[in-house]
Amino acid sequence: MAGEGRPPTVRRVVMFPFPSPSHITPMLQLAGLLRARSLEVTVLHADFNAPDPAGHPEFTFVSIRENLPREVVDNADMVEQMIGFNAACEAPFQAALEALLLQQEEPSICAVVVDGQWYAMLGAAKRAGVPALAMRADGAATFLSMLATPRLRVDGYLPVKGERLDEPVPDLDPLRVRDLIRVDVSDEATVLRFITLVPDAMRASSSGVIVNTFDAIEGPELAKIRAELSRPAFAVGPLHLLSPERVEHGLHAPDRGCLAWLDAHPPRSVLYLSLGSVARIDRAVFEEMARGLAGGGVPFLWVLRPGLLRGSGEQAPPSLEELDDAVGRNGKVVTWAPQREVLAHPSIGGFWTHCGWNSMMETICEGVPVLAQPCFADQTVSARYVTHRWGVGFDVGKVIERENIANAIRNLMAGEDVEARRERAQSLKMEANRCAAEGGSASLAVDSLVEYLLSL
């Protein structure tokens, strides 16, 4: 029986993930760590993109039974959609939380942990009388930039003006104005509204913040967050190293045959390319990427998921052979890859990535250098840290153009500074492993988080 032989449970924590695989996975990883420390876990969830309870019999799953308007579900503007999700789920979440309080038996609820995108749920939890913490699915640097948004608006850095794009942002080194959060398909006023709503809710209604990061890569940023909020910030990452689970998040089943293909290549010879589960690119960008890969002259493994090309619906992108036989001859294409295993494979010498935070944590933890192509949101912040704070890679350039890409690939895989870059990447890997080890800073942070939850 689950939990047999464990010490008596003292309290229960309620968790509310945002309905996206890249957000649900780290939330459930944290839930497992809390349960291993004798907290019972109830997962409140939306019916939209609901997690599978069968995969976690140790948790109690409860739907908030929201009613999402069709215009919210179908909205192609992701920022408007997130605002719509908050508006539609706020009342059902509060009602579900209050119902848990009314019907609860021992152990009693000590706190709720909500995803950082659920800004409205912080106020809802406060009204229900339950202390709430926000769990960020991005890095500390991104969240710090969100906290700075009111100041940046007053100082004239936001809304962004073209002539200021390359100006450094005060107190957010190494960020430039162009590195601040952006979503090109969204109205800038809507983006700024969302970015403002998040820190406003944190200041008004949160009891703290949880970040999937570690001091060796974002120590100064974590310290600034604690000072800015005057409340705890727990660096509990890298969560995928602390968690016993090896679940890969993604919308498609991974093609494990690519691992055998990697086996046939020498160490550090293959470039792995994936732009994650959400980003969309134009056909012209796809063609430049393909030609740049051909010009880079190295073997590559490319994740081309259905829906990657803008306007294609869920159709698969064109094959490389459709562009040119020479492009496809040196590479392998899959719909989805088992990313952690790919990054851990000895043949991988670089990762061309959108710089989503889960991918950042995974590549840092495997010591793989990065070619950065941020697409939207927090990815621009992470890409700047790759190149100018952590020193483990290059960006593909302001313009996605085949010759720039080919040169960047050659520099990443075999440039004159390749060994120094690999050494730096390996150093960060060692730091990540130290943090995740028993008695390391991440494990201690989870212990401190549990103590804090029990004190609320």
UniProtKB/TrEMBL annotation:
It comes from the Eukaryota. The keyword Transferase applies. CDD domains: GT1_Gtf-like. Keywords: Transferase. InterPro entries: UDP_glucos_trans. GO terms for molecular function: quercetin 3-O-glucosyltransferase activity; quercetin 7-O-glucosyltransferase activity. Belongs to the UDP-glycosyltransferase family. This is Uncharacterized protein. It comes from Eleusine coracana subsp. coracana.
